[in-house]
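User: Protein ARV, Gymnorhina tibicen:
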Amino acid sequence: GRGVLPRAMAALGAYRCIECNGEATELYRDYQRGVLRISICKSCQKPVDKYIEYDPVIILINAVLCKAQAYRHILFNTKINIHGKLCVFCLLCEAYLRWLQLQDSNQNTDPDDLIRYAKEWDFYRMFGIASLEQTSFFIGIFITLWWMTPEMLKRKSDFILLLKALLLSTYGKLLLIPAVIWEHDYTPLCLAFIKVFVLISNSQAIRVTLNLNRILPWFAIFFGLIFENCVVCLFQKMGWDV
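Assistant: Predicted structure for Protein ARV:
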């Protein structure tokens, strides 16, 4: 069935064709009485955004499949503003997984309040470590992209859009919770697959946002991982329990 079409999308603005990434002034035209006509891209002669008629579930499935068209629809042609909340929730999931693994390695059934508070502090510490690692990872990506393609990140809005894309593309970390709940012998393998999926999503987000080839986003992600590990090692040498 046809999804909800917000009237705000018909206003003039900077939209993108999901096929060729060309600019468009409108996504569809409303002829009243329920008659809508999707705009056609002047560059590729295809519908500017076919997803405005799709159900959100279909859009989500296409995003999970890392289709560039779905990413362009979400990043450029919608008003989604959940990246901050999504980032915090994903970090909480990662912190919970690390905290759970820490508890498994330290079996202590003492009901003393001091022990409970120590365990609670461990969770906050895991959240801080996860936040530090993700921030370092993003900084490494930004440094690499700014060095390799400075013309792509000239304005503050370019940085904000890329940051939003990176935060949204970390949604794969939500899979950490069911991976822990349905614990089995292959949990480490599942966690590795989740990590790879998140990196693939990050790569696609960078590629779509900056309209790059496939190689440069992966180079930026590789440097981001190196920078993340370097920051963690630095804090460990400083005596921090990271």
